[in-house]
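Annotated sample (chain length 262).
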Amino acid sequence: MTIRERLFEIVELNSSQILMQMRDNQLEKYISALNSFVENFPLFETELKNTLEERDYHSFSRILANVRDMLSNIYADDLAEECQKQINALLNVKHEKVLASVTYLLSLMAMLSIDIQVVIYMNENDDGSILRNEAAEDETEDAQWKKSILAVDDSAFSLDALKMSFVGTEYKFTGVRSGAAAIKFLETHDPDLYILDIEMPEIDGYELAYRVRDMGKTAPILFLTGNATREYVLKALKAGAADFIVKPVSQKLILDKVEKFI
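Output written by the structure step:
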């Protein structure tokens, strides 16, 4: 796949028609704008959280307007519109509701940032191997079989939220709270997908991903994260990430991500 084709698949971008018409030099400028968003988002995220915590709504509105313009420049029109809605809402909505809405909005923007980084990483490593489930090619799919998911997170709250996301679905969910427990589980089980938190004591998500591969397990790995910085994302990609789920978790976003791989 070309980088243009991969950009088509980023659902947060409304750029499909525009991308089709872009010349190569225009595409280069667009990719530069995407990179600028990735570089600047962590700073904007911190500033927005700080000003909102301090209830400095004037500064918050100014920063969010800058984010809105940056999103418009990369054709993330739906997110830009949501930013404007939050600016408009400040005058007549309670602080708690604004805080909840902005937290969710920031998680969507973090997902956009990570999706862009995955596309760029894939373009630079063009064999596409990190997104391929090698074992799946030889499997005969049984419509009655529940695909199995192993989630690893040291937070019981996060595991409960993940578990609730799969209630009523065809997925068999197992959650454990440590890397050691996951390794023990994998001695007798072979899940179809992994969801790994990155920040865990003793064995973090990166190390666990390497150990999973050392055990000969080839199923896709999705990392749970709230951090969209380049260093953080690149380290996860090198550890074998197929994709990411941004905290706080949302059932729709989780299922959309999972259905891409199993």
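Annotation: Confidence is low (pLDDT under 50) at residues 127-144.
Annotation: Strands lie at 147-152, 171-176, 193-197, 221-225, 241-246.
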